[in-house]
Amino acid sequence: MGKLEGKVAVVTGGARDIGRAISVKLALEGAKVCLNYFDNPDDAAATVEMIKADGGTAIAVQGDMTKAADVKNLFAKAAEAFGPVVHILVNVVGGIVGRKLIVEQDEKWYDFLMDVNMRSTFLCTREVVPMMTEGGSIVNFSSQAARDGGGPGASMYATAKAAVMCHTRAMAKELGPQGIRVNALAPGMINTSFHDRFTKPAARENLHNTAPLRREGEASEVADLVAFLASSESSYITGASIDINGGVLFS
């Protein structure tokens, strides 16, 4: 029996890369998973099939997590499929989107980066709280960029992820008396399509040469940490922002 047997988990951005690894891991631990995707039904269907092939239970729900109506629909579909209680929420949705220097950014860029990273976390957290009971766990995704300001052209991404980190602490204080824990992860270089798109090969090679562990992380390693934070094994951890970066940055 897995450590999440009988639990219901909602994973935003749960269809590919780190989100997929998390959806699969939570299901392997016994959770019924409602995974959200934005624009790739094939990825979502493949992830659901992976879970079912391992004997797990999952559904996929399309939606833009920056829109309140789509967020409400996601949790309504989870309740329809698995009942009115959600035990675990993992807010994976977010991203750097692109790199722009401050003089190249306009208000639309600011709004978009803050919306996809912070607004999505806010909306999903607000929606799930009435559905959670004592023992509930929320895991947010911040970033190493929130610690160090990010790389060239990533200032707004870093700022949005720092907002997620602070929101995590605030929610830990607010929801703790209800028995709901809220934590965040601050990943560094993880081997995903994110860095295939937005990180230069030279920067990745430099990490391989200088990081204490001499490699990038894997999505499965992030998923293992999420499963720990979602379970009772971490029952006295809340308000934490946990680095997972191979020793590149300590906090």
Question: Key features?
Answer:
single chain; 251 residues; alpha/beta; Rossmann fold; 7-stranded parallel β-sheet; 9 helices; 15% strand
Question: Could you characterize the architecture of this molecule?
Answer:
The chain contains nine helices and seven strands, in the order βαβαβαβαβααβαααβ. It has a single domain (8-244), classed as Rossmann fold, CATH 3.40.50.720. It is globular, with a radius of gyration of 17 Å. It has helices spanning 17-28, 41-53, 68-82, 107-128, 144-148, 155-175, 193-198, 201-210, 219-230; strands at residues 8-12, 32-37, 57-62, 88-91, 137-141, 181-187, 241-244. The model has no long low-confidence stretch (mean pLDDT 95). Helix content is 46%, strand content 15%. α1 (17-28) packs parallel to α2, α3 packs parallel to α4 and α4 (107-128) packs parallel to α6. It is α/β, with parallel strands linked by helices and 251 residues long.
Q: What's the structural blueprint in terms of helices and strands?
A:
Blueprint: E1 8-12, H1 17-28, E2 32-37, H2 41-53, E3 57-62, H3 68-82, E4 88-91, H4 107-128, E5 137-141, H5 144-148, H6 155-175, E6 181-187, H7 193-198, H8 201-210, H9 219-230, E7 241-244
Parallel strand pairs: 1-2, 1-4, 2-3, 4-5, 5-6, 6-7
Helix pairs in contact: 1-2, 1-9, 3-4, 4-6
Short synopsis of the structure:
The protein has 251 residues and is an alpha/beta fold. It is built from 9 helices and 7 strands; from the N terminus they run E-H-E-H-E-H-E-H-E-H-H-E-H-H-H-E.
